[in-house]
Amino acid sequence: MTVEEILTRLKELGDVSVSTRNLKYGSGDDQFGVKMGDLRTIAKKIKSDHELAKELWKTGNLEARLLATLIVVPKKLSAIELEEMVSAARFYQLADWLNSYVVKEYPDKEVLRQKWMSEKDVMTGRAAWSLTAGRVVRSPDGLDLPALLDRIESEMTDAAPEVQWTMNTTLAQIGICFPEHRNRALAIGEKLGIYRDYPVSKGCTSPFAPIWINEMVSRQK
Predict the structure, then answer these.
(1) pLDDT for 111-140, tens place per residue?
(2) Host H or E run for residue 52
(3) Does the predicted model carry a pTM greater than 0.70?
(4) Extents of the domains making up the chain
(5) Would you call 67 helix, strand, or coil by DSSP?
(6) Please, which residues have CB within 8 angstroms of residue 28's CB and are 6 or more apart in sequence?
(7) What pLDDT band is residue 221 in, cutting at 50, 70 and 90?
(8) Got the DSSP string for 127-185?
(9) At what angle do helices 50-58 and 62-71 cross, to 10 degrees?
(10) Buried (b) or exposed (e) across 158-174, using 16+ Cβ within 10 A?
């Protein structure tokens, strides 16, 4: 499929209710409102196509970029290309897909994580803390957890909402995975109070760190 054919198909699949919801959460106007399942179906047919993915990304269209995250080959991207993509992905759904399917699969993600942890760009900061949360869970060796807790305690209140979310995930994961740091993680969560009153659907766990930590720990018993 060509870029033009894909854009035509995406437009045909557009759903007003989806585009309205996307707009509500800050997607911007360059989107069709395609359901996530339909995007995955298209990606499954295309499989991996790195050059097509890069061309789709260049269009700036939300669904084209979401599709690009599913068919791009992460190891073929340069660090500069990936950083530009991360910085440009301002809509939460696109940022989530980019982090899950591209950034986390990038061979030199740890180099980028360390670089991004000291940058001021909101979306690279968001990605850096997302990668850090992943390291806390899967490969914590070498991480200075007390220093991370210090930074979360001093910076999270004033951080941009996008960064707060993944910083909070890191805080919760430290509390969940490391009993020796649990009391401090709980205390930081209580002190900062971020997401204390976050609306939660029935059956879901609150993102408020003390509730999140205690719930996950109780499931481990």
Answers:
(1) 999 999 999 999 999 999 999 999 999 999
(2) helix 50-58
(3) yes
(4) 1-107, 108-221
(5) helix
(6) 62, 91
(7) confident
(8) HHHHHHHHHHHH--TT--HHHHHHHHHHHGGGS-HHHHHHHHHHHHHHHHH-HHHHHHH
(9) 160
(10) ebeebbbbbbbbbbbbb
